[in-house]
Amino acid sequence: MSLRKKKAEISRLIKAFEREADQFHDADFTVFYISGDELSADKIFAHPNHTIMLWQYYGKLDVKNGIDKFTRNLRESNLKWGIRGAKLTCFAVIEGESCNLFSRMAKRAGSIFNDKEANIIKNRLVKEIQEAEKDSVKTSVAVVNDNEMAIWLNFLLYYISKTASGKKILTKIEPDPFSLSLFALESLLNNPKIEKVDKSLSKVDQIDFQVAMSFPGEQRTYVSKIVDLLRKQLGKDQIFYDHDYQSQLARPNLDSLVQNIYKNNSELIVVFLCKEYSEKEWCGLEWRAIRDIIKAKEDERVMFVRFDDSEIDGIFSIDGYIDANSFSKNDVANFIIERITLLSGEDIAQEEGGLE
After folding, report:
1. DSSP string computed for 1-64
2. Is the model's pTM score more than 0.70?
3. pLDDT tens per residue across span 4-41
4. Which structural domains are found in the chain, ordered by start?
5. What are the tens digits of pLDDT across the range 139-179?
6. Please, how many CA atoms are within 13 Å of residue 46, restricted to the half-sphere of its CB?
7. How many CB atoms neighbour CB 31 within 10 A?
């Protein structure tokens, strides 16, 4: 069964990972490589941890003279860690007190892919290496891990396009594995197929956005549809929406980057208010930057869209807002276009009858 037919299971996984991501678990995700029999770095991993081999490139094999050596290495190897004498081996490590919890959840997430999808994910990098080292005389050998957790971690790397080959390297992946899994699952729900998701080659911290979205994960489906409508009018790199820049947001000190985008690099900030917005720590970080804009008397740069009457610190009964329950998504998108037009002083061409 393909991903398109597993939206219910993906939705359940989103809720599970979102619940854990909100806990800010002590967990790190690191990828490291071993070349031959040498360790890739002098790194001591924290305990507890869960280390797993993702894939291994053994190298070219001379069919006439190399079979005996390969067979001997295979026989003498602990296959949990791969085959001795391999040219390059990729390992992943989950560190921290919650590593066992993440491991169980990752296995469940890795099981959503059918055989065809899993093969694409787990074979992606070794196929690139084999293609680069193709030899008409010698055959190259590679192995991949079929474990569901390995498949999920490979997919996370595929998702953020973190690749490396041919050299010893250690890379800490950001954000934490629970949050990264949440981002990846939300992307799969909206676009259930295996493909690269980084939609922009522009550096996110150097873009002047016309509008930025601030919202809790519970409203992502609604907000994503608003963003799709706005893209038709505003074009590329005009809307700050996290899914469009995920590979660039996978970095340390993400809070500082996002606050700077809202405060200094966005003309209009649309805040989607609801009960969950007041509860989420990441929304709280964004809200600090937005409140500073209000403090500077730049009220015209902030637009509220409300889903309910929940009390939110800094929002008062005198503050105006768009009622998401009274207007269609097309209406809300048109209201946003109107505000951008007023701020920029330039007309934005719209299709007859507004956004569709």
Report:
1. --GGG-HHHHHHHHHHHHHHHTTT-S-EEEEEEEBTTB-S---PPPSSEEEEEEEEEEEEE-TT
2. no
3. 889 999 999 999 999 998 888 889 999 888 876 554 44
4. 3-190 (no CATH), 204-344 (3.40.50.10140)
5. 778 889 999 999 999 999 877 754 344 344 567 887 889 99
6. 11
7. 21
